[in-house]
Design a protein that fits this description.
The chain is α+β, with helices and mostly antiparallel strands. The chain is about 60% helix and about 10% strand.
Length: about 170
């Protein structure tokens, strides 16, 4: 069962996706005609190009992760509200939901710290004792990767396996 937030998110995401696909597939002469009306210079087909920025990679990873997380939470909540589920199972399910929500908040916090400290866009995924960090719009250097690993490890009390991947 989907709650209102999830429904609104999926509706708006679907709308943005459809509009993006429409814009990308729009005939270039139609785009040139609409832009030449506002500009005095006429554009040719060669002048028009669609640039895919690297932040699209991070955005795609975040959307995919949010989708998986929402699906998992929905399944867990459905099992939790099932009348046939035992008390022990409900406690376990509740702890799993709590862990997912805590990890989501921690992932967002780490992404903001990486962004503010190194001016890089980042995607973070925490799974058990491992943390995967995908960094974009940053220089690809070992020292930066090492600094990001230290920054991420500071967020945890126990030792974590941290991987940093640079997108370029």
């Amino acid at each position: 069962m989907m709650n209102k937030k999830n429904l609104w998110f999926l509706t708006l995401f679907s709308l943005v996706l459809v509009l993006s696909i429409y814009y990308v597939t729009m005939p270039s002469d139609l785009l040139a005609a609409s832009t030449s009306n506002t500009n005095t210079n006429s554009l040719t087909d060669q002048d028009i190009s669609v640039n895919v920025t690297e932040s699209d990679v991070i955005a795609a990873l975040k959307v995919e992760d949010d989708s998986k997380t929402n699906d998992t939470l929905s399944e867990l909540q459905e099992k939790l509200t099932n009348a046939e589920t035992s008390t022990e199972e409900k406690n376990t399910l509740y702890e799993q939901i709590k862990t997912i929500n805590t990890n989501s908040g921690l992932e967002e916090s780490i992404e903001k710290k990486i962004n503010s400290t190194y001016q890089c866009e980042a995607f973070t995924k925490i799974e058990d004792t491992s943390v995967k960090v995908v960094v974009d719009k940053c220089e690809n250097s070992k020292s930066l990767a090492n600094n990001i690993m230290r920054l991420v490890q500071e967020q945890f009390e126990e030792k974590m396996y941290i991987s940093v991947q640079f997108e370029s």
